[in-house]
Design a protein that fits this description.
alpha+beta, four-stranded mixed beta sheet, 5 helices, about 35% helix
Length: about 200
Amino acid sequence: MEIILLERVEKLGQMGDRVRVKNGYARNYLLPKGKALRVTAQNIERFGRERATLEADNLEKRGTAEKVAAELADSSWVVIRQASESLQLYGSVTARDIAEVISASGVPIKRQQVMLASTIKTLGTYPVRIALHPELSVEVKINVARSEEEAALQAKTSDGRLKPAEGAEAASPAAEVGEEIQAPEPEETPPAAGEPEAPDAE
C-alpha cells in the first residue's frame, strides 16, 4: 500500500513522504494511529490543506519534548530486583517497569516510548533510549541491583556491572531462611523500539 506520512516514522521516512509499506502494517498501525494517510487524490489534497497545521503542531510537540530531554539527559534510575548469586534476575525488567520508574520521578513516560530491544534479565547498568518525539530521543541509564548499596557499587565500575563474587558479597541474600522467594513475574514481550519496525516495502 502507498501512504503519505503525517509525521516522521523511524526507518520509514519524514512527514510528507510517500512510501510503500505492507498492507497489514498500514491498516493495523500507521493508519489507525494517525501517522499516515492512504494515497488517494482526496487525501493528497487533504494533506496539502493541513500540512501547515501539522508542521506547526509537530514543532510545538518537539519543543515540549526538548524540555523533557533536558531533564532526562545524563540521568540514571535504580531498579531493585531479587537475583541469584550469578546475578541472574528472578524475573525480568521490562519496558513497562522502566516507564513506571521514570514516571514516578515526575517525568511521565509511556511504555511505548521505552526503546528496549529485549527484557533485562541480569543485574547491571544498561543504556536505554527513550523516544520523546518522532524526531527526538534521549539515552538514560537503568541500574538494576538488589539494593541501593549494590547499585552505588555498580555505578562506580567501568562497565556498570559487578562480578558474580562481588555482587554476592555486596548484596543482601534474596531471602532469609524460611522466607518465601517471590515467584518470577511473567515476562512481557516489549514493543519493538516503541513502534513497530517498518517491514520491507511490497
